């Protein structure tokens, strides 16, 4: 995952990096590995009240002397006494996080920055729209777990196939639509549900995270069609199709500027 462009909590807090020990490693699906962290420092850190809380894992040494080590941000899926679960999407040897999650073992030491976060579903909202791909699934699942009985939720999650679907516990009145990659796009699935009258009435509290262009389309649609104001919207591109992590981070300012232009165009209508 990456940082939201609209989260009041901002990036992880500055300061000395923290350490934890890998307590367990479990492959949840063919493309998702859960790494459980444990350590005395975890008990002293405020995990934040946000359901999109995340840490930035340090995944290597600096490329040059005096440089910064490579880090990647991942959502904390669950917090227990002294333990945090971090789910990592794995696509073979691509990127840094996936290969790390594939080779890490219990007993290994982990260094991380954070935690940070900025979104938590408002239990008083008329309903909740959660949409994202596998990279956003941990935050979507955490939001579903946090919502109380009676909360109305419509969630849309894009995964590679049926084998990557996950059981998600929630007390809410929730309907989860799994979108298999290649069958249709995530944005089409959400918009088709709206056109068919399958989304509740009223303005939702919306969480739209995942691939950058998909998120931008959904964000623009949610603002224009559902009337979602900025303060009821958490939207961020975690990655961009065809770009490496480094390239995407360098381009993200342009994406944020394009999102601002979308808002300006909407205001001018």
Notes on the protein architecture:
The protein has 269 residues and is of the alpha/beta class. It has 2 domains: 99 residues, Elongation Factor Tu (Ef-tu), domain 3 (Beta Barrel); 141 residues, Nucleotide-binding domain of ferredoxin-NADP reductase (FNR) module (Rossmann fold), CATH 3.40.50. The protein has 6 helices and 11 strands. A 6-stranded antiparallel beta barrel has the order 1-2-5-4-3-6. Strands 9-8-7-10-11 form a 5-stranded parallel β-sheet, sandwiched between helices. Strand 7, helix 3 and strand 8 form a beta-alpha-beta unit. Helix 4 runs parallel beside helix 5. It starts with 17 loop residues before the first strand and ends with a helix. The N terminus is likely disordered.
Task: Provide keyphrases for this structure.
Rossmann fold, globular, five-stranded parallel sheet, 6 helices, six-stranded antiparallel β-barrel, Elongation Factor Tu (Ef-tu), domain 3, 2 domains, 269 residues, disordered N terminus, alpha/beta, 26% helix
Task: Describe the protein's topology.
Blueprint: E1 18-29, E2 32-38, H1 40-44, E3 54-58, E4 71-80, E5 83-89, H2 97-103, E6 109-116, E7 128-133, H3 137-146, E8 152-159, E9 173-180, H4 186-195, E10 205-211, H5 212-225, E11 233-239, H6 245-268
Helix pairs in contact: 4-5, 5-6
Q: Helical proportion?
A: 25-40%
Q: What is the molecular shape?
A: globular
Q: Tell me the span between the first and last alpha carbons.
A: 33 Å
The portion of residues forming beta strands comes to 25-35%
Number of helices: 6
Uncertain regions spanning at least 5 consecutive residues: 1-13
